[in-house]
Specification:
This protein is α+β, with helices and mostly antiparallel strands and 225 residues long. 39% of the residues lie in helices and 12% in strands. A four-stranded antiparallel beta sheet has the order 1-2-4-3, sandwiched between helices. It is globular, with a radius of gyration of 18 Å.
Amino acid sequence: MLEPKLFHDVLRERHSVRSFLPTPVPDEVLRAVLEDAQLAPSNCNTQPWQMHIVSGAKRDELSQAILADDDAGHNTPDFSFALSDFHGPYSERARSQGAAYYEAIGVRREAIEDRRTAARLNLSFFGAPHVALLFMPSFGDNVRVAGDIGMYGQTFLLSLTAHGLGGIPQTMLGFYADTIRKVLGVDPSLKMLFGVSFGYPDEAHAANAYRICKAPIEESLTFHQ
């Protein structure tokens, strides 16, 4: 059994894992992680998250379907996303993260095809044996529901770390929402926000060797007295 980790340490150990070992997560460990995630807060205790976890042959089928739609240029996102929407420090942080990742895995900025190949690793779940897809019902403008899903997702990610696992939240999987709903038989009324590939990190892989910097709290904090 793993020794309990301090919350301070879990926060600092958690990072986005981009290469995994093929070893499946034991059912009892996954159950413990999910029970932790279920404790996340939500507006009016609505608990709106609907989590679909995909493993084994179904995981492979799903990845193949998503890759085929990517080849065909067929995107079906439920929510908009474009890097060009970012501005100012938000854009700078996004560029810095991308540059650090591609440098870590040895992909040059001008190597367009290599960058595309690296980006498509999202669609094979970075080799993770499991992927979790987070769906949500649609209420109003969806902002508060999406916030609840975010809190659930963060709790899930932190619990993965506490149990010696790793994960990566993936907005890119949301670009194929219709494909995922079709393969998994998910009710069309449920909207997909993002996915999380997870499992045991491949610590020897270059993609897991780098860490990104977080902005000092002064950049996003204002005290009022």
